[in-house]
């Protein structure tokens, strides 16, 4: 009989936008033949509510997965999954407030802590306190903790001590990209820079847009969720009319995103928080030269290849300092890093091994 694994904490599958959603999607693809997988999804985000996907069962919770409602969404998912699964993979610490009450259960819990979520600028003080407390509970009560970045492991170890942490990163899209059909949403001849992220302060969206707005000879396509909150709407209104800036709403078509990455002259990555960011790994895998905000997590992900900036001045200077040949060489080195360190087959195998190990440990302890 297959071991039963529930994936909790993402918006759901099919993946649309975000690292956890992509991870859940790829685990369904790679591991459904080995495990009986269930994925918990937000009913608010899917008009079509499939019962199965890539061999996994889908369960819908009638709440949004993000924001304040995300706490109840995660707890509801955990409670529903508890009696029907051998292992819970909990993505993020939001629902870990309930872990102390699950000690009676034989179900094993694995928590991916998502890069010290409480430190992100988007949270108000009370939310930060809650997330930090929930993170502490995850560290104390989860059977296994997953980290996705070596720099993050150093910080977590210094904060919580040297308990065992599982280091598992993300993968990059390895499929070749076809350009046989001309598309109106992919610039055919025009050179452009590309940025893709959630529109939140810690991703340095204002810094990137302010820089490009002062460099009219450069064109930027910036993809994000521009209508999700007051910050994103304010930024959109300020920069929507610049002729060299194209603000696009988040696109969930992976083939379009792959083409945009492949054809861009460079990719700008502004994330200042978190661990290994999936959008950065995917940009590296496409061969795009990357200008990244100079954070420990980004340097670790890129193995210090690429170009780094910490201010608007540094970004502007960097964007005008490299020849096409130099950028091509940087992109090739980053692609080699992605091919060597970020393979979905190896990522999924690591998760599969961990699912099996915690289950075996639980059987041996009873």
3D structure, described in words:
By secondary structure, the protein is an alpha/beta fold. It has helices spanning 19-31, 69-82, 125-141, 150-160, 205-213, 230-239, 254-263, 278-286, 296-302, 312-319, 324-341, 344-364; strands at residues 3-8, 35-42, 52-53, 56-61, 87-91, 108-112, 144-147, 165-167, 193-196, 220-224, 245-249, 266-269, 290-293, 307-309. It has 2 domains: 3-171 and 344-364, Glycogen Phosphorylase B (Rossmann fold), CATH 3.40.50; 193-341, Glycogen Phosphorylase B (Rossmann fold), CATH 3.40.50.2000. The protein has an 8-stranded mixed beta sheet, sandwiched between helices. A 6-stranded parallel beta sheet has the order 11-10-9-12-13-14, sandwiched between helices. Strand 3 and strand 4 (56-61) form a beta hairpin. The longest helix is centred in the last third of the chain and has 21 residues, at 344-364. The relative contact order is 0.12.
Determine Rg (CA atoms, Å). Answer: 21 Å
Strand order within the widest sheet?
A: 3-4-2-1-5-6-7-8
Low-confidence regions = none
Find the CATH superfamily of the largest domain.
Glycogen Phosphorylase B
Shape: globular
Estimate the strand proportion: 15-25%
N-to-C SSE series? EHEEEHEEHEHEEHEHEHEHEHEHHH
How many strand elements? 14
Number of helices: 12
- What do we call the CATH topology of the largest domain? Rossmann fold
CATH architecture identity of the largest domain? 3-Layer(aba) Sandwich
Instruction: State the CATH class of the largest domain.
Output: Alpha Beta
Q: Helix/strand/pairing class, anyone?
A: alpha/beta
> How many structural units, i.e. domains?
2
Mean pLDDT: 91
Largest sheet: 8 strands, mixed
Helix share bin:
40-55%
Termini separation (Å)?
19 Å
């Amino acid at each position: 009989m297959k071991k039963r694994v529930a994936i909790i904490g993402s918006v759901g599958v099919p993946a649309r936008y975000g690292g956890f959603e992509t991870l859940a999607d790829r685990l369904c693809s790679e591991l459904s033949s080995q495990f009986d997988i269930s994925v918990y999804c937000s009913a608010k985000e899917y008009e079509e509510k499939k019962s199965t996907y890539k061999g996994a069962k889908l369960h819908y919770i009638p709440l949004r997965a993000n924001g304040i409602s995300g706490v109840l969404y995660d707890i509801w998912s955990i409670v529903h999954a508890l009696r029907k699964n051998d292992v819970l993979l909990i993505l993020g610490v939001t629902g870990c407030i309930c872990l102390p009450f699950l000690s009676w259960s034989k179900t094993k819990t694995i928590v991916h802590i998502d890069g010290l979520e409480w430190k992100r600028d988007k949270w108000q003080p009370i939310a930060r306190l809650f997330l930090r407390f929930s993170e502490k509970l995850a560290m104390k009560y989860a059977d296994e903790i997953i980290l996705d970045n070596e720099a993050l492991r150093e910080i977590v170890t210094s904060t919580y001590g040297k308990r065992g942490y599982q280091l598992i990163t993300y993968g990059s899209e390895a499929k070749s990209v076809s350009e046989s059909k001309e598309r109106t949403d992919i610039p055919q001849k025009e050179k452009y820079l590309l940025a893709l992220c959630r529109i939140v302060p810690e991703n340095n969206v204002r810094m990137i847009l302010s820089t490009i707005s002062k460099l009219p000879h450069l064109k930027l396509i910036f993809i994000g969720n521009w209508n999700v909150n007051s910050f994103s709407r304010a930024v959109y209104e300020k920069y929507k009319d610049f002729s060299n800036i194209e603000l696009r709403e988040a696109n969930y078509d992976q083939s379009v995103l792959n083409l945009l990455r492949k054809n861009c002259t460079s990719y700008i990555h502004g994330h200042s928080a978190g661990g290994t960011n999936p959008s950065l790994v995917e940009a590296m895998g496409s061969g795009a030269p990357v200008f990244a905000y100079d954070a420990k997590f980004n340097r670790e992900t890129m193995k210090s290849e690429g170009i780094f900036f910490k201010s608007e001045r540094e970004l502007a200077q960097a964007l005008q300092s490299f020849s096409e040949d130099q950028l091509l060489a940087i992109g090739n080195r980053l692609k080699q890093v992605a091919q060597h360190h970020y393979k979905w087959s190896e990522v999924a195998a690591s998760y599969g091994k961990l699912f099996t190990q915690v289950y075996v440990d639980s059987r041996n302890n009873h």
